[in-house]
């Protein structure tokens, strides 16, 4: 358990905190061995130093962001930004589809873009694995 992430969750209102606790538990279960920390003020999980998934409380929802999500071929994911990220959005714990989340987390292990070295490569992303 990561105390920094628990503290992040504890600062949210009860509904958002419950969403984040459920997401954290599912991520920890399905990404065994991944490192987690508060990164840019939000909980993020890493595999070999590469960001994989993280969540943040935005104005109207909790966003679950997958750094390589646009490559997962999942209709439920919403493209985010100019690179390969995609997200899911939640306003209530009942909206979390744990089977979908497990499937996407499994894909995130095998389908990764190298965000760890994006600055060194001057914005160019390369596919890992």
Structural description of this entry:
29% of the residues lie in helices and 27% in strands. The protein is of the alpha+beta class. The chain has a single domain, classed as Alpha-Beta Complex (Aspartate Aminotransferase, domain 1). Strands 1-2-3-4-6-5 form a six-stranded antiparallel sheet, with helices on one face. A two-stranded antiparallel sheet has the order 7-8. Strand 5 (78-79) and strand 6 form a beta hairpin. The longest helix is centred in the N-terminal third of the chain and has 17 residues, at 14-30. It is globular and about 40 Å long. The model has no long low-confidence stretch (mean pLDDT 91).
Task: Write a brief structural summary.
This protein is α+β, with helices and mostly antiparallel strands and 129 residues long. Helices cover 29% and strands 27% of the residues.
Describe the biggest sheet? 6 strands, antiparallel
User: What class, by secondary structure content?
Assistant: alpha+beta
Series of H and E elements:
HHEEEEEEHEE
Give the proportion of residues in helices. Answer: 25-40%
Q: Could you tell me the radius of gyration in angstroms?
A: 14 Å
Q: Tell me the total number of β-strands.
A: 8
> Number of helix segments?
3
> From the 3D coordinates, which CATH architecture would you assign?
Alpha-Beta Complex
Number of domains: 1
Shape: globular
Topology overview:
Elements lengths: L2 H8 L3 H17 L4 E5 L2 E6 L2 E8 L4 E5 L11 E2 L6 E5 L7 H13 L1 E2 L13 E2 L1
Antiparallel strand pairs: 1-2, 2-3, 3-4, 4-6, 5-6, 7-8
Helix pairs in contact: 1-2
